[in-house]
Design a protein that fits this description.
Blueprint (H helix, E strand, L loop, with lengths): L10 H14 L11 H8 L3 H13 L3 E4 L3 E4 L4 H25 L2 H20 L2 H17 L4 H18 L9 H16 L3 H26 L1
Antiparallel strand pairs: 1-2
Amino acid sequence: MPRARLQSQRLADQAYALLRAQILSGVLPPGYALSVPELSRLLGVSRSPVREAVLQLVADGLAQEEARKGAVVAHFGLEDALQILEAREALEVASVQLGVSRATTQDLEELQRILQTQAETVQNGDLEGYQTTDLQFHKMLGSLSHNPVLERMVGLLKDQFHLALEPAARSLAQLERGFQEHQEVLKALQAKSAPQAAKALQKHFERIRESLESWMTARG
């Protein structure tokens, strides 16, 4: 992990945000030991805020405790990823259905803006950019219900699934299909059709599930 320095705000929050970003970007890979003394040295802060940040990562499912190793960046198998995906689908579909009546004009405009950026990443074959816009799009779907509890749960599961899917997400073949499916979800929201929005999102998740199973099978 590269050396970084934290500024003066709440150090535990900053340490958490930095570690989370580096986990999701792959800088800290699955299985990486989150040693509090080592991270404290690298971040240039005392151990207390780092320990708090690591505990929060464990609570959020981005890290896990292992015997004789302590906390490490979480690693997921196929069954884990499929269970996370199943829970994500249930919660995101619920959020989208509620969002048909609760989403603001600004919410829909933000989804449109994200997809405009995503279209550019697909055209350019920009895998990293696509993943960024994918996170943004699904985070927005989770916020459409304007229910903070539901939004947080969707966000946590999306982060976990992003970590589980990271190696499989390095294929250009899926970008165009994912983008088209996102567009269908947005069209249904704009039409204020809860059944159509739910169906479009469920179709999107079914394709992700099939792709994940195929990738895991091929990987052996």
